Amino acid sequence: MDPFGYTIDIPREPSKKEGLIGQILIQQGLITKEQLREALKIQKERGGRLGWIVLTLGWVNRLELFQALARQFHLPFWNFSIEAFEAKCQKELLSNLDPSIVIRYHVLPFFKPTPDELVVLTDYPGKNFSLVFNTLKKKYNVKKVLPWIVTDLDFAHAVQYIWNDKLADEAIYGLFYRNPDQSAIRVFTKTQIFLLGCSAYFLLIWLYFYPLSCISFCFGIIQAIFSMLVLFKTLLSFAGARREQYEPISQEEVRQISNSELPTYTILIPAYKEPNVIGKLVTALKKLDYPQSKLDIILLLEEDDKATLEAAKKAKPPGNWRFIIIPHAIPKTKPKACNYGLFFARGEYLTIYDAEDIPEPDQLKKAVIGFKKHDSSCVCLQAALNYFNADENFITRMFTLEYSYWFDYLLPGLDRLNLPIPLGGTSNHFKTEFLKLLGGWDPFNVTEDADLGVRAAAHGMTVGVINSTTYEEANSKYWNWIRQRSRWIKGYMQTALVYNRNPLQMIRILGFKRWLSFQLFVGGTPLLFLAVPIVWSVFIYWIFTESKLLDPFFPPLLVYWGLFNLIWGNFLGIYLNMIAVFRRKLFYLMPYSFFNPIYWLCFHSIAAYKALWQLFFNPFYWEKTEHGITKHGEKAEQK
Q1: What are phi and psi of 463, to 5 degrees?
Q2: Backbone angles phi, psi at 149, to 5 degrees
Q3: Lowest pLDDT segment from 246-260, 286-300, 370-384
Q4: Burial class of 581 by CB neighbour count within 10 A (0 to 12, 13 to 18, 19+)
């Protein structure tokens, strides 16, 4: 009997393995000899642990596997429950323990059956714990550390039960605690408020006393910004176009990589109120050309989202999936959920997929190859995004043109010129340890991906792109599109404010060229959308009325400059959208390029002004995008 009255069977001396896991599973009638031979063949070809291979094939469940592992290593198996854990656990053993260390080393101090012995829970039998156990012996002044086996899910549940509040707090405020200057929890610093206030006051005084020169000056500044942004994006597009026939990672390289050499890969899937798409996601991830036994797939679900949890259970994903429930806390954002899931990530590499995503099957292999081809400073590789419902309606066609241009030309242009790359919201592949060093995502930045790409550059790390595509659902409803885009633009505004708190320091870190690129790309994109209605309205008024009323405010030079911007800017927007169709051979979308000016004015600009309003009055509000509303089936054509 232990001190709590439970009958226990604790080995007093380390034991050798009782037998091979495959033979134990056969003896217990859980698999057949034919299944064992097939599993061993898969192990020989792809590597990985045999027990995990059998689990992912669906031949045994978790409980059966871990009970067999306990028998293999002649260790006690403990069937976790909150009540039993609460009764047995000596909480004083857990004081001053860091939960991330417990997760990292797979060891949780449980109780002391005698003064000289410490029982620990582990979900990793067979791991060499000698160094960890020696540390525990010194820390707890015991002579023996005795492991009990629990399933990996129960180990995670135990960690969550003990440290849930601490993990949630770290997921939300961790970046702010470590580096407050890089957190968007403060929208404006005192210096920024002072400078904005002084500028506004100065302009008001100028406008009051000298309205003509003030309006001319402001209009000239808008025209100058507009010209620089259009020119910059044109140069990026031409730089990206030079890679049109260049394939950074070839199919031959993908075929040559050995499955046995592939590392464990974590996939985080943040999902909130998306029960309609979970089944499709499970199917898509089963098709990945990557050993399933080396995939660590974590579905991140909010505490109040019972519908998505039930849908995920009904989908019956393979054993390499885990469901992690995120505790309710504000802000309820995707980056907070990803930070929480990052604690439990096992993979050497990690990627994010949204619930409606359909990645190309070889994408993970291309990411592994890509990291080997880049230097050690590369923290992330961004895959392209595109849409499987491009031809659903006008909105999805325009959205597809925009994404094709963005991911096939602009981002490759940034990569080619070695400029900071703001990440997309999904299919960005990370080195897990580097991601943790960066502090994960900022839960207060509603475009956390773009922020993380810039933060990587601010820490001297680099981001690259890979020639692989993830297909997802394009917004097919106008106001749903506005909600999504206003969040993105607001996040770009937040990111621009965060990394302009210490501009001289950023110039020293990035260099002037890369700093200027950040200003034009991240800060300039919202300004471009905000400027469009102003530029258009002046000239529409002038063209249709031929009024001389505005002549005193706009000298001929400004008028012609503005007219040039209006004509040349729209021409380039149409032309760049036209070339966007070539790489993916979406030629049927080419006529829609002519609607690009309307797309900017009636879509982007409205979203930008909504984002600007929210930046001041509701900065951390996460505009939820509704998914699973398309009437088109998934046609993720592999180009």
Answers
A1: -125, 135
A2: -95, 135
A3: 246-260
A4: buried
Q: How far apart are CA 159 and CA 577, in angstroms?
A: 50
Q: Which residues contact 363 (CB under 8 A, 6 or more apart)?
A: 288, 383, 427, 466, 468, 469, 470
SS3 515: helix
Cα–Cα distances in angstroms (integers) from residue 158 to residues 2, 132, 152, 366, in the given order: 20, 19, 10, 36
Domains (range + CATH), the chain:
183-639 (3.90.550.10)
Output DSSP code: residue 408: I
CB 159 within 8 A of CB 102: yes
Partners of 325 in the β-ladder: 301
* Token duo for residue 301: 């679900």
**Exposure string for 194-213, b = 16+ CB within 10 A, e = fewer:** eeeeeeeeeeeeeeeeeeee
Reading phi first (left if > 0) and then psi (alpha if -120 to 50, else beta), residue 114 is in beta
Question: What's the rounded Cα separation, in Å, for the pair 625 and 633?
Answer: 19
DSSP letter for 149, please.
E
| Cα 16 from Cα 73, distance rounded (Å) | 6
pLDDT in tens, 128-182: 788 899 999 999 999 999 999 999 999 999 999 999 999 999 999 999 999 999 9
**Is residue 188 exposed (0-12), middle (13-18) or buried (19+ Cβ within 10 Å)?**
middle
Residue type, 77: F
Main-chain dihedrals φ then ψ at residue 447, nearest 5 degrees: -125, 70
Determine the Cα–Cα distance for residues 345 and 341; give it in Å rounded to an integer: 7
3-state secondary structure 262-318: CCCEEEEEEECCCCCCHHHHHHHHHCCCCCHHHEEEEEEEECCCHHHHHHHHHHCCC
Write out the two tokens for 635: 């046609």
Among 451, 281, 266, 415, residue whose Cα is nearest residue 349: 266
**Cα–Cα distance for residue pair 269/152, rounded to 1 Å:** 18
| Phi, psi (rounded to 5 degrees) for 322 | -130, 145
Query: In terms of residues, how long is the chain?
Result: 639
Global confidence as pTM: 0.90
The three-class DSSP label of residue 382 is strand
d(CA 475, CA 398): 10
Query: By three-state DSSP, how is residue 431 classified?
Result: strand
Condensed to tens digits (0 to 9), the pLDDT of residues 559-590 reads: 778 778 878 888 888 888 888 888 888 999 99
ω into 331 cis (within 30 of 0) = yes
- Mean per-residue pLDDT for 478-496? 94
Judge contact between 353 and 237, C-beta under 8 A.
no
Do residues 371 and 378 lie in contact, with contact meaning Cβ atoms separated by under 8 Å? yes
Average pLDDT over residues 57-68: 93
Q: CA–CA distance from 629 to each of 41, 172, 569 (Å)? A: 42, 30, 34
Could you say which DSSP state residue 327 is in?
A: P
| C-alpha span between 378 and 457 (Å, rounded) | 10
Order of strands across the sheet that contains 117-122: 108-114, 117-122, 144-149
CA distance 127 to 478: 53
Q: What is the C-alpha to C-alpha distance for residues 93 and 610, in angstroms, rounded to an integer?
A: 52
